[in-house]
Amino acid sequence: MNLFAFLLLNVCAVAAPNPALDGIINVGTRLAPATLSADSYAAWVDPIAKPNGKDYTSAFAPSIFAWYAAQKDAALPPQVQQDPDHIYVDVDTAKKEALALEASGDIEPYTAAGANVYAMGDGNVDQALEAQLDVWGKPIGQMEGKTKPAPAPFGKRANWFAPNPAWGPGAYASLEVRKDGGIIWDLSDRYLLLVRGDSTHGYDVLMQFLGPVGTSSTTNVLAIAVIRPLPNGKASFKISSRYQGQSYRFLGDIGRNTIGFSQSKVRGIQKSYVDSVTELRTTGKIVDHVNDL
Q1: Is 292 within a domain?
Q2: 58-95 burial by CB neighbour count: b if 16+ within 10 A, else e?
Q3: Segment 271-292, tens digit of pLDDT
Q4: What pLDDT digit, counting tens, does each position of 194-222 carry?
Q5: For the packed helices 38-45 and 61-71, what is the interaxial angle rounded to 10 degrees?
Q6: For residue 204, what is the enclosing H or E element?
Q7: Cβ neighbour number for residue 277 with a 10 Å cutoff
Q8: Among candidates 267, 268, 264, 222, which has minimal Cα distance to 244?
Q9: How far apart are CA 158 and CA 142, in angstroms?
Q10: What is the DSSP annotation of 105-154?
């Protein structure tokens, strides 16, 4: 055996699949819809989101897609310009939706969290998209890999990211692991991401939970982000996200307001993202947070 063959065999022997794709259930070669709408997305994702008798469809999907339809071509609300950090966080809408779904029996009480967020970043739409995908595990300038984004409210976080050709162009898988969150249980969650759009018109990014890897408290997640160019060369960023998982029932309405629908908590997360856009624009990179994941 020559040296080249020996090295090739050794590389193949140690190579492992990207954890983002390991265990992903592909239903044939179903290509994701080219544009995002409630009906087209539901028809495509239904078999993927219901593996082995489980159902990871979010009860918040109708409200999130209604928000997306209203916001995808709308200007930023005036509260963004009035804020010194150019961030506006609306948790009241998400809380009202959760209370209605709890009352109807569609979701378990005291398990939901979420917000609608509006912001302006100090970077263009491509930098805003890169910073957003960095959160999900895509290293800047690479097609796949691993990142360690800001972990709050956990102590540690790592994300793995990879394209999934079976879902078509602009379709990706992500594995997210979060640990050391105090009273918040550890997470090990698998997601799909769809990216639609371009540098001229902006981007839309959909993210959905596809199930745990091992043990996780997450039960359902759906989010849609809207990134649009602004006349000043910067980018607007909007996101509507809803999470369901660990119960905070024992804390009652205090838990609802401090864990489920906390404006200050969401604002801190969004500020970290806005700062990462600035970091990317000024340095060309986003530095990982140090942890042992």
Answers
A1: no
A2: bbbbebbbebbeebeeeebeeebeeeeebbbbbbeebb
A3: 999 999 999 999 999 999 999 9
A4: 999 999 999 999 999 999 998 899 999 99
A5: 140
A6: strand 202-212
A7: 26
A8: 222
A9: 16
A10: TSS-TT-EEEEEEEEEESS-HHHHHHHHHHHTT--TT-SSEEE----TTS
Q: Which residue, 234, 210, 135, is CA-closest to 178? A: 135
Domain that holds residue 118: 31-283
Q: What confidence tens digit (pLDDT) does each residue in 82-141 have?
A: 999 999 999 999 999 999 999 999 999 999 999 999 999 999 999 999 999 999 999 999
* Residues 278 and 122: beta-carbon distance below 8 Å: yes
Beta strands 145-147 and 112-121 are unpaired
Count of Cβ atoms closer than 10 Å to residue 291 Cβ: 14
CA proximity to 144, closest of 160, 129, 121: 160
Nearest to 162 by CA among 119, 185, 133, 187: 133
In a domain, 10, yes or no: no
- What is the distance between the alpha carbons of residues 287 and 45, in angstroms, rounded to a whole number? 33
**Does residue 221 form part of some domain?**
yes
Evaluate whether residue 7 is within a structural domain.
no
Structure tokens at 18: 């990207």
CATH of the domain at 174: 3.30.530.20
Looking at residue 76, what DSSP letter applies? P
How many structural domains are present in the chain?
1
Asked whether the beta carbons of 226 and 72 are under 8 A apart, the reply is yes
